[in-house]
Amino acid sequence: MLRVMLRRWYVAAPALIVAIALPGAAWTMIAPKYLTTSTISLLNSSAASSANQRTGNPFLAFDSSLTPMADFLARRLSSDQSAADLAARGVVDPAAAALASNASGPFLTLTVTGKNQATVLSELQTFDQYAIDQLAVIQTSTNAALPTSTLIRAVVVVPPQLPTASKKTKYEDVAGAGVVGLGILFLSVFGMEAMALRRARDRAAAQGPHRRPVISSSIDTSTIDSSSIDLDLDLDPEDEGETEPWIDIEPLPLEHLVTTDHDPGTR
């Protein structure tokens, strides 16, 4: 793989720059998302809080029937109709409602996620009031009008918290941009390599009938009769005179090789 990338460096280099630039651009351009939550609690009616020698304090009169009612309210707040109603009230960011996790009572957790801290905080306050209003609408939509003293109430027990930046979604967006960049890198390099190989095969197929035959080296030379090989060098007799003749040099006698003193003064 690395060898292919090095061979196609003129494609790999720009694609690598794009693969590195995409996550950086995603980190810079994608705004962080802010998350804020609140918690509301369903309370028993004033009549139920005062019945059976109770003190009338709703926090001392939690009933098991309140938890199914809280679940019913959470499902209503998560509907498309509620989303449209919230949008009409100015809540345009995603809002969600669910039963509080690990809760021992009828508690609902409301959440709003958006890109502006102040807007998210304001939208969650609107969402809290809308949830309280919807609880009253559910109970007053029956055929028989219920006394006000028998209506279940709701109260905000945890007000909207200061919005905090959610890095998880931003990390996911940056990782997605990185995957797209790597995909561009590999597709460009190996796509170019595949195109080059295809063109080479096409050229080889086009030149196939005009190529010289390849003599196999596996021929058994022991079966070839050397006497049947005719070496026709096709020499021109006129060129024989132009060649340099052989020079026959007679060797000198050994006495000529003996070193003698030719200076008479040394005798």
Explain what the structure shows.
The chain is α+β, with helices and mostly antiparallel strands. It has 2 domains: 2-27 and 169-205; 31-162, 2-Layer Sandwich (Alpha-Beta Plaits), CATH 3.30.70.1130. It is built from 7 helices and 5 strands; from the N terminus they run ααβαααββαββα. It has helices spanning 2-7, 9-29, 46-50, 66-77, 80-88, 117-140, 167-207, and strands spanning 33-43, 95-99, 107-114, 153-158, 164-166. Strands 1, 2, 3, 4 and 5 form a 5-stranded antiparallel β-sheet that branches. β2 (95-99) and β3 form a beta hairpin. The longest helix is centred in the C-terminal third of the chain and has 41 residues, at 167-207. The radius of gyration is 49 Å and the shape is elongated.
